Amino acid sequence: MPYVINNECIECGACEAECPVGAITAGDGKYVIDADTCISCGACAGVCPVGAPNEE
């Protein structure tokens, strides 16, 4: 299942830099994961300081 970023996102960008497939981009108030590109590797969740990325 692809990951999604919840409203706990603090827009630090750690997840975007860690994503191996470039599925994460800055959105309006939080980062967004493209479900079609996400490979569900969990790299984003591993670096997020607030635990915003979660499996959908």
Give an overview in words.
- The chain is of the alpha+beta class and 56 residues long.
- It has helices spanning 14-18, 43-47, and strands spanning 3-5, 24-26, 31-33, 53-55.
- The strands form two sheets. The protein has a two-stranded antiparallel sheet. It has a two-stranded antiparallel sheet with strand order 2-3.
- A hairpin with a 4-residue loop joins β2 and β3.
- The termini are close together.
- The model has no long low-confidence stretch (mean pLDDT 97).
Radius of gyration: 9 Å
Count of individual beta strands = 4
> Sheet with the most strands?
2 strands, antiparallel
Order of helices and strands: EHEEHE
Strand order of the largest sheet: 1-4
Compact overview of the structure:
The chain has about 55 residues and is of the alpha+beta class. Helix content is about 20%, strand content about 20%.
What are the main properties of this structure?
56 residues; two-stranded antiparallel ribbon; two-stranded antiparallel sheet; 2 helices; 4 strands; alpha+beta; globular
Topology of this structure?
Blueprint: E1 3-5, H1 14-18, E2 24-26, E3 31-33, H2 43-47, E4 53-55
Antiparallel strand pairs: 1-4, 2-3
